[in-house]
C-alpha cells in the first residue's frame, strides 16, 4: 500500500537523522520510493523557542497495517535518540509522522489517518506536493488547494536534495 511519511529533526545532525530514518525504515518493511527535497522550517506548536527544523517527506510502499507502520516509525525515532517523556513539540533528533496510508481513514487512541494536521502545516504540504503535486486526501480534498488556502506565515525554505 502506498503512503506518505513526514520526517523532521532539529537536534544534532538533523540531515543525518533524516537519512538514517530512510535507511532504518527500509529494514522494517517500509520501502521508500521517493524522497522530497530538504526544507528548513520554523517551529510550530506549543514550544516555539527552539532551533529551526529540517523537514522532508517520503513516499512509501508497505504491506504493514497502520498500527504496525506507526510502531515502525516510533521504533526508528527511538533508535535515533528520541525521548518520548518530553513535552509535546519539544526539540527532537527525529520525528517520523504517518501522514497518509492509501485511502485509509482511521481514528484510534494512537493514530488518526489522514494525519489531522496535514492540511494546516506548510512544512508538511510543501514536501508532499513536491513528491505528488496532485495528491488528495481520501475524501478528495486537494492538498495543493489546502496549501494555497493557508494564511501567511510558517516559514518553509527549500534547501535542496536530502
List the helices and strands and how they pair.
Layout: E1 2-9, H1 14-26, E2 30-35, E3 37-41, E4 53-62, H2 66-79, E5 95-101, E6 106-107, E7 112-113, H3 122-131, H4 143-149, E8 156-161
Antiparallel strand pairs: 1-4, 1-5, 2-4, 3-4, 3-8, 6-7
Helix pairs in contact: 3-4
Task: Provide tags for this entry.
162 residues, alpha+beta, Alpha-Beta Plaits, 6-stranded antiparallel β-sheet, two-stranded antiparallel sheet, 4 helices, 8 strands, globular
Fold and architecture overview:
The protein has one domain (2-161): 7,8-Dihydro-6-hydroxymethylpterin-pyrophosphokinase HPPK (Alpha-Beta Plaits, 2-Layer Sandwich). 27% of the residues lie in helices and 28% in strands. It is built from 4 helices and 8 strands, in the order E-H-E-E-E-H-E-E-E-H-H-E. The protein has helices at residues 14-26, 66-79, 122-131, 143-149, and strands at residues 2-9, 30-35, 37-41, 53-62, 95-101, 106-107, 112-113, 156-161. Strands 1, 2, 3, 4, 5 and 8 form a 6-stranded antiparallel beta sheet that branches. It has a two-stranded antiparallel sheet with strand order 6-7. Helix 3 runs antiparallel to helix 4. The longest helix has 14 residues, at 66-79. The protein starts with a strand and ends with a strand.
Amino acid at each position: 500500500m502506498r503512503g506518505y511519511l513526514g520526517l523532521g529533526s532539529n537536534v544534532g545532525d538533523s540531515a543525518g537523522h533524516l537519512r538514517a530514518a530512510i535507511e532504518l525504515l527500509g529494514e522494517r518493511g517500509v520501502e521508500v520510493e521517493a524522497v522530497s527535497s530538504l526544507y528548513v522550517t520554523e517551529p510550530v506548536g506549543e514550544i516555539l523557542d527552539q532551533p529551526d527544523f529540517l523537514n522532508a517527506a517520503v513516499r512509501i510502499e508497505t504491506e504493514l497495517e497502520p498500527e504496525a507502520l506507526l510502531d515502525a516509525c516510533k521504533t526508528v525515532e527511538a533508535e535515533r535518540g528520541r525521548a518520548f517523556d518530553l513535552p509535546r513539540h519539544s526539540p527532537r533528533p527525529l520525528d517520523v509522522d504517518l501522514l497518509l496510508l492509501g485511502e485509509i481513514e482511521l481514528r484510534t487512541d494512537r493514530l488518526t489517518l489522514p494525519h489531522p494536521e496535514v492540511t494546516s502545516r506548510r512544512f508538511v504540504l510543501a514536501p508532499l506536493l513536491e513528491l505528488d503535486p496532485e495528491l488528495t486526501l481520501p475524501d478528495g480534498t486537494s492538498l495543493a488547494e489546502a496549501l494555497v488556502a493557508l494564511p501567511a506565515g510558517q516559514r518553509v525554505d527549500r534547501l535542496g536534495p536530502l
